[in-house]
Amino acid sequence: MSWSSPPHIPQRAEAVDYSSRTEPASPIRAYGASSTTSIYESSPGFDDALIEAEVHVNEFSKVASHSAEFRPLQELFNTPINIEFGADLNQKCIVHLELLKCYSKLVKDLFNSAEPYHLAYAQGRSLRQSVKALLWPKTPTNMFSGEKAADTVEKAMGLIIRCFDRFPLHEHQHSIREVLVQATTEVFTNKQMWKAPPSTGDLKKKEKDYHPVDQIRARLQVLKSEAIEHVIRRLNRILWIIKRTETQQMARQDHLKAAAQRRILLPSYDANTVGPFLQWIYQGKLCVDNATQLCELYELAEELGVTNLAQTCLSKLSAGAFHAIEQANSEGITLQTLIENSQQRLVTGSQGEAHDPLVGVVWTVFKFVLQNKEPPTELEHMVVEAIAGSADGELLAFLMPMMSHGILQQVAMALMSRLSCVKLVPKEKSKTESIKAEIPIPQKAESKN
After folding, report:
1. How does pLDDT run across 152-201, given as a tens digit for each residue?
2. Rounded to the nearest 10 degrees, what angle do helices 225-245 and 149-165 cross at?
3. Which of 25, 97, 247, 294 lies 20 to 30 Å from 181 when distance is taken between CA atoms?
4. Angle at 197 between CA 192 and CA 199, to 5 degrees
5. Location of each CATH 3.30.710 domain in the chain
6. What is 15-113+257-287's CATH number?
7. For the segment 73-127, what is each residue's pLDDT rounded down to a tens digit?
8. Cα–Cα distance between 221 and 187 in angstroms, integer?
9. Torsion of CA 46, 48, 51, 52, to 10 degrees
């Protein structure tokens, strides 16, 4: 799917910058960290590209906030969201949702679909904060027994009934009701918790009359303030458990819920990939250090539906590997030797030459295709054709352990296709014209004929 910029975004040429990046002059605070923690303290060795991209986030935000004439640009920075990455999701940075939507229909559709959930989360957060505000340490410990006890009890009962009847996150409604029924029953069946303690017989009758579900308000109204405090504490705990479940478990399992929480979770990627991604989003520059990083950036762009960036990465990988293979063929270098040299250059680097981010691209592309469950069709076709065209048994034996069943099947079919194209001409023809095929037939086989 091709991408075109929306009308309010100026069209810009794709800039590819492989030059080294310099550190910004002033330290940038890490998003999601405390105000006293620098980005270097929170994440040692944090990729320069990520820092540079965040600098531009701040710069663009300042322009958008103070320049009325740039109203369309300002609208691109209204909704900051968190990108959380790393195996433990312990690193995060900010990206602006409206800007990201411009490059990805996938992100746009996902966050638009998550709006009802986002509203429900906001309502749930408001309820949770209101409940928390009635308890220590937000309020003094005597709020349910001091001068303001009546007002506090009234607020607490209102919150209990609201959560019991209409909790915004409907999938948790049953759990909340169970907790509130249990907590209310515990104090309702204790005569010492009643404003006017009933007799034992009267208590049993009241238990039947005041149904724990249908008459929860009636039950609460006959109880002392400390009984209401007991119930509101239990409500506060279940709301905290729901919050933890939603943010730490459900969001990891459901992209829609993560989007509703204004988060994009990328546990499979690190700063070396997220940094160049943000740099491309905000600056239009593709800055990578090596072909492996380019492969990872391609995968991230594919996952987030940023097709322009994915196609750019794919074109760089394809062109680099194809050029290297063609050059090796013209110089009489076998594919196996080329791969071995490519592996060696990945280890040794450019050895004093100007840094080339596509050093070792052939082996990187081969490994990426052979180990990927769903490799890009363009790269997959190139790798299969190169392996089949080499007709090298040793190379095939070396690569086979890494091949998936599908790739191995394609290589076999490509080899069979080449064998079927072998044509033998009459014996009176010269030796150089006796065989016309990409895979040569050994001399012994020719003499027997």
Report:
1. 999 999 999 999 999 999 999 999 999 999 999 999 999 899 998 877 77
2. 40
3. 247
4. 115
5. 15-113+257-287
6. 3.30.710
7. 778 888 999 999 999 999 999 999 999 999 999 999 999 999 999 999 999 999 9
8. 12
9. -170
